[in-house]
Specification:
- With 121 residues, the chain is of the alpha/beta class.
- The chain is built from three helices and three strands, in the order βαβαβα.
- It has helices at residues 29-43, 68-76, 105-119, and strands at 17-23, 50-56, 99-102.
- The protein is flat, with a radius of gyration of 15 Å.
């Protein structure tokens, strides 16, 4: 994997580097990515420097647990996804830019549209 390793990142501890994974409903791909990255960040001792979260582009699963298949797949690999609750991405989050990880072309397209509208005067 190219680029700078996590251990060499030096963000301001008062303003952590924020990473938000987004997929359509926030019950499968994005919570899986969030759980795995959060575990890696914790194991590397970077929890105060990197904040991870996830959200969906739609609101139809808000408040629900991750899909059972997601929880099972995570558990088979030693991760606990049972505490996740789906939420919808809020365009106001663009005011304090996170790093966004899209779960497919449709969420990426929706991001772009929402970012343009959130920044428009």
């Amino acid at each position: 994997m190219g680029g700078m390793p996590f251990a060499s990142l030096t963000p301001d501890e008062l303003t952590p580097f924020r990473i938000i994974f987004v997929c359509t409903g926030n019950i499968c791909r994005s919570p899986m990515a969030e759980v795995v990255l959060r575990d890696l960040v914790t194991k590397l001792g970077l929890g105060r420097l990197i904040a991870t979260s996830s959200a969906g582009t739609g609101d139809w699963h808000v408040g629900e647990q991750a899909d059972g298949r997601t929880i099972t797949a995570l558990a088979k690999r030693g991760y606990d996804g049972s505490h996740h609750r789906a939420r919808q991405f809020d365009p106001l989050w663009f005011a304090a830019p996170p790093r966004l990880g899209g779960g497919g072309p449709r969420p990426a397209r929706i991001f772009g549209n929402r970012a343009r509208h959130a920044r428009a005067p």
